[in-house]
Amino acid sequence: MKASVYTQLVEKLHRIDRLNSVAGLMSWDEQVNLPPASGDRRAEQMALLAELQHREAADPVLAEWLGVLEADGGADLDDDQRAVVKEARRDYDRIARLPEAFVVRMAKLESQAYHAWEEAREKSDYALFAPFLQQQLDMAKEEAGYHDLSGPDIYDFHIDNHDPGMTAVTIEPLFTELRTGLVPLVREIVASPIKADPSPLIGLSLDGQKLFLKEVTDWIGFDYTRGRVDVSAHPFCGGDAADTRMTTRFVRSAPLEALYSSIHETGHGLYEQGLPVEHLGTALGRAVGMGVHESQSRMWENQVGRGRSFWRFFEPRFREIFQLGSDKISSDQLFLAANEVKLHPIRVESDEVTYNLHIMLRFELEKRLFDGDLSVDDLPEAWNDLSIELLGLRPENDAEGVLQDVHWSGGAFGYFPSYCLGNMISAQLWDTICEELPDLEQGFEQGDFSRLLSWLREKIHCQGQRQDTVTLVRRVTGEAISPKPLLRYLNDRYLPLYRS
Predict the structure, then answer these.
(1) FRET partner for 113 with CA separation of 20 to 30 A, picked from 44, 201, 268, 491?
(2) Counts for the chain of helices (H) and strands (E), in that order
């Protein structure tokens, strides 16, 4: 009996996943192709889709099947089946407690808030977005209330949505230790007389940038037969293993921005494409959590993409496309430009040394918003004050400050810590990879990135969601999540570049 019930459960999960993928494509289209005056129509469409998604995902028959499969502690199920049932139960309990009307309101608000954020960011006018942010915050608290949560548990609920097993209490000491080691490193580098000069790269043709980033992402392993890259206001990766959608953006004053945004999103895309298509919709076919997801994107962007071995292979093609001779910029100058460290108000345009300070800023503000210590109206001032404290600079306007990220428009509270956790995890994984593949970077110099991708496929991608973030990291690296490998990596890479 259990075998037939399990088959029915999986078929149902696949059906739910197909609906989710349609909603994901609609969201991708909204940020890439939607005409500017069509936002209201899309909000209605997303609300209808959310209604259908909720109806399927909260179907009482799921509870019946799960009850049968969980009987006797899951006896007669193998380990993979137990993992599928466990995560299906987690998903069902989270969704079934939400009224359909609430889910519809949430989907409609997400679409409306995105367009409000886009306009507010363009006009650098926080007042246009503040009412929508307040609604998203209220909705986030209301959602947790349906799970009988209150106080600090509300923010932890949303952190757990993105990184199962993590809470604010487990994150805080990691961030504190990282900040203690990071601040003196940032100060020394910023005070160094050695400065990167990316000015010879400003004005690189848009067509050339598109060609180069397409060649790079294709070469390192992104499968364009089941994926694509487009342009959006905020780079992201969506879709799934069967249809992976990435976006980037081009910034004339930051000529390498599109390249590194694309490599970053490719890291996400490679993870998605490494998940088994036949298991989409179940725990065996989806990522562990956003911290591990970010570890993949940050590793490809930074440990690989900003490394000397990467540039030794790709530099000749880069110079060929943009007609850049060594008289305009030497190899050492190009490498330093790719590893420029400077204080910058925008997170996604920041280097990997200062980047984590941006995440700590958002983490602190989110905690205060959920604790009730900070109001939505006072958020811009609090943002600016904390930016001065952590980064030593004040944003010139709302677009450079509180409006720079898209996440809160979608109610993605608790997501930002994943970026910093991802940096820590990437450094830990990198230590393990370099031990197990000692000649890896020599391969990069010859254009061989396949060994790294194969290792990640085996150790991370194909594992799906069999373990939570904490368990997976310990299993692969032998250690708990720690900032020490990240601090060691940043010191080893950047101090030799910025010390005379």
Answers:
(1) 268
(2) 20, 3
